């Protein structure tokens, strides 16, 4: 079984400013500050923020169906402002998923506003199809809203 969920949020922030956060490690630092009830910690396991970087993401106890996951940056396209992250351990892989990828794209609307496009693509192993109902874009939506709010209030 294959599926996809998406979310888009327009923010009054230049695309270049958003990409500075989303394109590397800064987003992990910000989510633990801005959303401590959603993300307990985000630690670099290996890498410097480029392709191949592996992060360990820990969720607060009792707040999520999964307690942790390790994700790897598999695509970072600075021209198109696209980042693809794949879960390589834990998370939904422990619930019968064979693939769980997060796509993040910053789309320039004009010089002062952008769209944060977030999506999750997944594949579920036979016998675990019911677990597809657990997939939610909510955390990525919360991240986009929190970062958008932080950057617009900072200005």
UniProtKB/TrEMBL annotation:
Q: Which GO terms describe its molecular function?
A: abscisic acid binding; protein phosphatase inhibitor activity; signaling receptor activity
Q: Which GO terms describe its cellular component?
A: cytoplasm; nucleus
Methyltransferase as a keyword?
A: no
Which Gene3D superfamilies does the UniProt entry name for this protein?
A: 3.30.530.20
Q: Which UniProt keywords are given for this protein, alphabetically ordered?
A: Alkaloid metabolism
Identify the PANTHER family for this entry: BET V I_MAJOR LATEX PROTEIN DOMAIN-CONTAINING PROTEIN, OS08G0374000 PROTEIN-RELATED
Q: What is the name of the protein in this document?
A: S-norcoclaurine synthase
Source organism: Thalictrum thalictroides (Rue-anemone)
